[in-house]
Amino acid sequence: MTSAPLAARLREVAGPLFFPVTAFGPDGTVDPDVLRAHVRAGIDAGAAAVFACCGTGEFHALTIEEFRLAVAAAVEETAGRIPVVAGAGYGTALAVQYARAAEEAGADGLLAMPPYLVVADQEGLLNHYAALAAATGLETIVYQRDNAVFTPETVVALARTPGIIGLKDGLGDLDLMQRIVSAVRTHRPDDDFLYFNGLPTAELTGLAYRGIGVTLYSSAVFAFAPDIALAFHRALDSGDDALANALLDHFYRPLVELRAQGRGYAVSLVKAGVRLQGLDVGEVRTPLTEPSAAHVKDLIEIIASGRTLLEEHADDRRIATVHGTPGGRA
């Protein structure tokens, strides 16, 4: 656990938010050593925070003992250098158990995922997240998606709830998000409530979310191609539209189109990508399935295309610098 409040550390980040996969060994059990290696590689590559055992980390497939082991491995590897946020979900009672396990393992915060199965009204959702936030001393980010979709008024109430510091949006309704941002700003003008773009392959919608002031985003790509994810993050921050648009057109859009070809590919394709980089993190657990061999081949080609773009862009910058126009294109 780090000493500074999580909200303060996430407010100004210099790199992508890293959502590691959970490593499983040949016998199917959690492999903390490989997970630590995966986290270490992310930190070395420039991750701003580690979100362990969340969607990409197959939270849904972990027992509470495995969850505690995996979160502890991430905490040990980060050693306070960057914050660790752990997933928590299911019904209120079970979500509280996972939250307390995350706190015991040394996490800095929680990503509160939607309740399991049921569709609750706004009052019930608010009660659920308030109870979860009150169960530990960890700062909590609420994840909007699927059966947990909030009105602007509910988000205002969440922002007023002690311990809740932000909203991660996995729904993608920009009209709703703009109204949420506006409502919180109106009712809490001095509030520093955080917002995250939490869509799968969030980079694809990064420019759109920035238009409503949402700059933080989760990066599944960082798990298997940190060089590409970091280059895109820097391009957005620096206004390098040429590189950002090239990566959107020739890496991120093809990746999203590939992801759409298989159920659960938002997780299994990422895990396949990590294995392609030389780290054996095992396969996904059921009910998810592995991507087909043809789709893995497509993924290899998409990654290669992204890295070729980075090389070409670096060459352009070198040529431009020689001609006295640093940062431009020749």
Automatic annotation (TrEMBL):
Pfam families, alphabetized: DHDPS
Domain of life: Bacteria
Enzyme class, first EC level, given as a word: lyase
Catalyzed reactions: 5-dehydro-4-deoxy-D-glucarate + H(+) = 2,5-dioxopentanoate + CO2 + H2O
UniProt keyword Lyase present: yes
Key words, A-Z: Lyase
Enzyme Commission designation: 4.2.1.41
Involved pathway(s): Carbohydrate acid metabolism; D-glucarate degradation; 2,5-dioxopentanoate from D-glucarate: step 2/2
SUPFAM superfamilies for this protein: Aldolase
InterPro entries associated with the record: Aldolase_TIM (IPR013785), DapA-like (IPR002220), Dehydro-deoxyglucarate_dehyd (IPR017655)
Keyword Lyase: yes
Similarity remark: Belongs to the DapA family.
PANTHER family from the UniProt entry: 5-DEHYDRO-4-DEOXYGLUCARATE DEHYDRATASE 2-RELATED, DIHYDRODIPICOLINATE SYNTHASE
HAMAP family: KDGDH
Protein name: Probable 5-dehydro-4-deoxyglucarate dehydratase
Native organism: Streptomyces rubiginosohelvolus
